[in-house]
Amino acid sequence: MKGLKEIDLKNKRALVRVNFDVPLDSKGNIEDDFRIKESLPTIEYLFKNNCRVILLSHLGRPDGKRLKKYSLKPTLKRLEELLHKDIAFVDKISEKAIKMTEAMKPESVMMLENLRFDKREEKNSDEFAQELAKLGDVFINEAFPVCHREHASIVGVPKYLPSAAGFCLEKEINELNKILFKPKRPLIAIIGGAKISTKIKVINKFLKIADRVLIGGALANTIFAKQGFSMGDSVIDKESFSDVDKINLKNPKLFLPIDLGIWNGERATFKDVSNLIKGEKALDVGPKTAHLFAGAINGAKTVVWNGPLGLTEQKPFDKGSFEIIEAIEQSKAYSVVGGGDTIAFINEIKKEKVFNHLSTGGGAMLDYLASETLPGIEALK
């Protein structure tokens, strides 16, 4: 896989697949521009090489329909503010759009509307990939969060243009490799979130290579439900019950919650892991678990974390995740964190500096850690 500095960029039209899939509020305002800011070093490097920059991205899941709420226009406005320059906006690929790219001046930028407005993107249409390739002379992949997807803009376009990884993508791989290959030990993996089916591979991978694996969030709810506990009105993923059977729950490396933060419909309380009654919801790990997990993190040399341990957007069910952050900070371990909800929480409480690397990817991070490669990375090779 080549990096930006390994291909000829001078005066080229640089077709850059970014990931501007950012959270928007009900009025279409950007709630977190972390992913947009992460693309800036690559864009600015392309400017230094007199490139004309054409940006490709998706936003949300419009399923091939042109829906206003999934337009990239809010991200264009924010990028204009960050770059201090106007950006041309193109609604769809056409001969006119191609001619516009050819007429662009060096250090200018154009953005194409949401790729997923065209069904061919997610179907990995070769025809669509060729149409996209006509917009540029070189292709730069700066979209690590979707590198696990076999979509036209990720694995199709590199067939037709000289290609390289952007600075952010290259950094993601380098940082995650520090965890996979010869990590400083003890290596602690913390895995939260909702669906076990999306995390089964990485859980089992870390049960092999990590020293301790801490599991919380709705993942733990599902495990407890499969074990026969009544979980009241808690979020559980019954479709993943068969995946629970693939985890060796007796592995001494595995740490599950011993108590839970509960909402009983009127107030927050704590309860040791046992049967929950109707109306009770497990929304966080409890204080005993937070203390147990903090002890497991104590003395760690490497920590990787994906997925919150509770409903962090609702106090006091952010407490378990907050205490994990404090434990990581005190450990002074090399630490990597990923997943949209986890990153949003860390940014909200302004604890970004605790971590050595904040990954832009959630699912892609998990897939890379489990498989040690991704389709988008293989396409660049």
Q: What proportion strand? A: 15-25%
Q: How many DSSP E strands?
A: 15
Structural class: alpha/beta
The residue ranges in which pLDDT falls below 50 over 5 or more consecutive positions are: none
Mean pLDDT value? 95
Helical content class:
25-40%
Spell out the CATH superfamily of the largest domain: Phosphoglycerate kinase, N-terminal domain
Head-to-tail CA distance between termini: 5 Å
* Overall structural domain count: 2
| SSE arrangement, N to C | EHHEHEHEHEHEHEHEHHEEEEHEHEHEHH
- The first-level CATH class of the largest domain is given as Alpha Beta
Order of strands across the main sheet: 3-4-2-1-5-6
Approximate shape = elongated
- Second-tier CATH architecture of the largest domain: 3-Layer(aba) Sandwich
How can the largest sheet be summarized? 6 strands, parallel
Cα radius of gyration in angstroms? 22 Å
- Provide a count of the helices: 15
Could you explain the architecture of this structure?
This protein is α/β, with parallel strands linked by helices. It has 2 domains: 4-170, Phosphoglycerate kinase, N-terminal domain (Rossmann fold); 182-370, Phosphoglycerate kinase, N-terminal domain (Rossmann fold, 3-Layer(aba) Sandwich), CATH 3.40.50.1260. It has 15 helices and 15 strands. It has helices at residues 34-38, 40-48, 73-83, 95-103, 126-133, 152-156, 167-180, 200-209, 217-226, 241-244, 287-297, 319-331, 340-348, 363-371, 375-380, and strands at residues 13-18, 52-56, 87-90, 109-112, 138-142, 163-165, 187-191, 212-215, 254-255, 259-263, 268-272, 281-285, 302-306, 334-338, 357-358. Strands 3-4-2-1-5-6 form a 6-stranded parallel sheet, with helices on both faces. Helix 8 (200-209) packs across helix 14 and helix 11 packs parallel to helix 12 (319-331). It is elongated and about 65 Å long.
